[in-house]
Amino acid sequence: MAPVKVTFTINGITTEALEGSFLLASLKANKIDVPTLCHHKDLVPNGTCRLCVVEVTDRGKTKTVTSCNFPVKEGMVVSTEAPSVVRNRKVLAEMYLGRWPNVPAVKEVAKKVGVTGSRFSSDLTDENPKACILCGRCVRACETFIQEKIIDFAGRGIKRHMGMPFGEVDPHCVGCTSCAYVCPTGAIEVIDDMNHPVDPLLIRNHGMRVNAEMANLDPSQCRMREVGTANIVEVMDAYDLLPVCNYKFGSHKDTPKIDSKVLKEQYFTQGHADQCWHGCSMACAKAVDGYILKTGPYQGDAVCVDGPEYETSAGGSNMGCFDPDFIVEFNFYCDTYGLDTISSATTIAFVMECFEAGIIDTTITGGKVLNFGATDEALELLHEMARGEGFGVDVGQGIRFLKEKWARELGADAAFLHDIGMEAKGLEYSEYVSKESLAQQAGYTMAVKGPQHDEAWLIFMDMVNNQIPSFEDKAEALYYFPLFRTWFGLMGLCKIVWNDVSPADNKKHPPQEAAKIPEHVHNYWKFFEGMTGIPLDEKKMLDQSARVHNLQKLMTLMLGYGTRQSDVPPYRAMGPVTEEEYLSRQERYDGQLTANLGLDPASMDLPAKMSALRTFRYEQYDKVLDAAYKRRGWTREGVPTLERLTELGIDLPELVEIAKKYQ
Ligand code: SF4
Ligand code: SF4
Ligand code: FES
């Protein structure tokens, strides 16, 4: 629905504003200056100080209102200079001045309304220039940005003051400094010496921007505060990107059993900011209290589970397990055992497919019937992996180990195992289906540490938004995003505040720029500058990161995973390995054969169609790899050129020696 405008007059001048907006904004828009103390642009107004009073006549009734929280109305008549409001303001300013005579914000307001002295000095007069004037901004900041009331009013009457419960520092305070930022007097002092930043104010200013966006935009964007990263379970399912049964499929009818709605309504009991990044108010972490474990060494105990987040739920769907209790329990034991939920889930999903394909049987699994969806058996296997017992000894060593062992000892089809074994460089894949995104296939597999989305998550840019259609566009994304992500990882900064909430006007940028979220990248630079005193821009940031990224690449090379063959994904990450998979998306794949290769699927049998699609997808992948290597300054073999090492200033003899062999 289009926003409705209302028309009214201010001091005899006709003006318009959006219905529901507050009058103070209209006064400012008309360059009419009324004094304020409790108002702040990032906070919901609540009319505490009463200095912004104006006179409003609406449908024959005249009254004095606080303009900061008075919604505009059609036909109303506003006067900011009516004798009663002028008198009101003056008396109020005099009272403020009587109690807090040296606070600059109070003196400024008094001056604005023509008050130079006060008749209200008393025992309560506080000479401190940084005295608290009880405006309540800090309380609203804590409520708005942290969803807490850690700082609040205490005491009554003349004893009213601000504080934390029982006058002690509340451990739930995340140190976001929002309260200090909005305080008009400096009454809340921030001790900035924890990490000795060069310019703490610069950091606070940008931190406040982040806090304000999180508070105002997150509810209508990713809902991180409400449900954490689990918000994308249903989104991925809707886009056919949620891994199901070892990445065979991208959605499932039972996804609603494990989606964010279920987790929020039936499981999550905690969701406040947990200080994983000091001062962050995003509160993306969620937790489940009092979960009674059904298995394992703590069976019967009521425990607190840190999660689940998206990857844990998606790990469940990848094992074909759409039982939220299983996901919570799997989450708890992975954390408790120190096992990575992604690697564990992806490995067990691979084991399940091998079991269903008859590659292994119960003689190998220690009697466990490990079909997809076998929740009890999956948990038993997880416990065995942690204890280093039975079948868990092998499974705990990951997919690469299992592929090689089963091909060698069981005579299994090595090519098939390679196709369905979702690992690269020895690391298991993260929980996204990348079949329809060429850029993501490369993003995962080219990642120097192995296929995790820490370096590049380009599925939406590539597949959903079609923002990087050409090979060169994809190569550019595969240059910029891994370097940006590597950079903030190196700085110990979190990714969530980069793109899980976007500025409201982010779409003003052209699509490829918009994907970078330029204003938020700028926040990271300012944070860096505030800490180090060194200003940053895109080139400097990318160069800093490229030095480390190329060094990592050379180290990967030393480990034997640094050449082109290690950057090629298993085919399951690129397309349909089995007939069942092809048939599940037959219409799409048939359409691609026609559109891209000019083939007539109706005249081809299934193996022929699958073979043609596979050849096409490998060719496409080769092209994207060539383009990305070129953009990164790497050879066709995927190794940094000597010129690139020199350009980055890392042409140290030891490094040149490693790279030289592959030029
Ligand atoms: S620093 Fe942040 S969390 Fe702590 S009291 Fe202030 S607003 Fe609340
Ligand atoms: S501490 Fe600052 S923001 Fe809080 S009530 Fe006092 S003056 Fe206002
Ligand atoms: S600014 Fe409106 S009441 Fe304080």
Question: Can you characterise this structure?
Answer:
The chain is of the alpha+beta class and 663 residues long. It has three domains: 77 residues, Ubiquitin-like (UB roll) (Roll); 208 residues, Orthogonal Bundle (Aldehyde Ferredoxin Oxidoreductase Protein, subunit A, domain 2); 223 residues, Aldehyde Ferredoxin Oxidoreductase Protein, subunit A, domain 3, CATH 1.10.599. The protein is built from 29 helices and eleven strands. A five-stranded mixed beta sheet has the order 2-1-5-3-4, with helices on one face. Strands 6-7 form a two-stranded antiparallel ribbon. Strands 8-9 form a two-stranded antiparallel sheet. Strand 6 and strand 7 form a beta hairpin. The radius of gyration is 30 Å and the shape is elongated. Bound molecules: iron/sulfur cluster (2 copies) and FE2/S2 (inorganic) cluster (FES). The site of one iron/sulfur cluster (SF4) has 14 residues, from helix 4.
